[in-house]
């Protein structure tokens, strides 16, 4: 009755100091506007909420300085753990956090020399699957719209894709490699650039679905039929890929499975601060839909 009458609310800060835990975790993702990261953050938050934890979700915009700022904020709030999709390659601020003892799980983008558990997908195999699919359809003039340089995901997918083509003697000249930023506009810009040079490939692998959807938009604007004149394959398996016309063929990765493993790794570390970091690689699968078909030209 007194609590109701006074409208008393426990002081979370005082309670956390007494308990030595805030039951809060930090989640940092590079682009909250990308459905891949939205879905991933949502799954991470769902799992943590079920375990009685609150999640503070931060958007680094792929910017290392912003990521560093959020790491400071989350540490000042004494989060019990950190689930991080890196803005790019590690920097000293991340090393400090991990060495400072904050249980940190690296999600999606590998950060080689960080002493922290990591979960990602088989990116190289995914790139190979995309290349093999287009080769099996009969394509030989194949281009790639790669993600941002300096990211493990972009590099691994390009490696796997290139390996598939090289195995059967299909060249990947420099003018068939475009660099995007994982946003739709960069995918459209790549198709526009190939159209301007008059050297549009008969098939394109985009290293994520948003750039693939941008490529579809560029093809449509130029009256290029998909898949008749141009085949397009993406990577991620976001829901929008099934809502565009034609539906997007893509290399699917499961944000739910990635989140579930990340949480398992985090609780391993929360239960035992000396737990040996480990790396989990999840499988990918090719979802063949209407945006890929045999070459007409
Ligand atoms: O769509 C965003 C991309 O960046 C995804 O492929 C994900 O793996 C991340 O690396």
Q: List ligands, each type once.
A: alpha-D-ribofuranose
- Distance between the amino and carboxyl termini: 79 Å
Helix content: 40-55%
Q: Mean pLDDT score, rounded? A: 94
Structural class: alpha/beta
Strand neighbour order, sheet with most strands: 2-1-3-4-5-11
Rg, rounded, reads 22 Å
- Anisotropy-based shape: elongated
Task: Tag the structure with descriptive keywords.
297 residues, alpha/beta, six-stranded parallel sheet, six-stranded mixed sheet, 10 helices, 42% helix, elongated, binds alpha-D-ribofuranose
Structure description:
With 297 residues, this protein is an alpha/beta fold. It is built from ten helices and twelve strands. It has helices at 2-6, 12-19, 35-50, 64-76, 92-99, 123-136, 152-167, 184-197, 209-221, 255-271, and strands at 24-29, 54-59, 81-84, 104-107, 117-121, 142-146, 177-179, 203-206, 231-236, 249-252, 279-282, 285-287. The chain has a six-stranded parallel β-sheet with strand order 2-1-3-4-5-11, with helices on both faces. Strand 3 (81-84), helix 5 and strand 4 (104-107) form a beta-alpha-beta unit. Helix 3 (35-50) crosses helix 10 (255-271). The protein is elongated, with a radius of gyration of 22 Å. The mean pLDDT is 94. Bound molecules: alpha-D-ribofuranose. Alpha-D-ribofuranose (RIB) is lined by residues 34, 36, 108-109, 153, 182, 208, 210, 235-236.
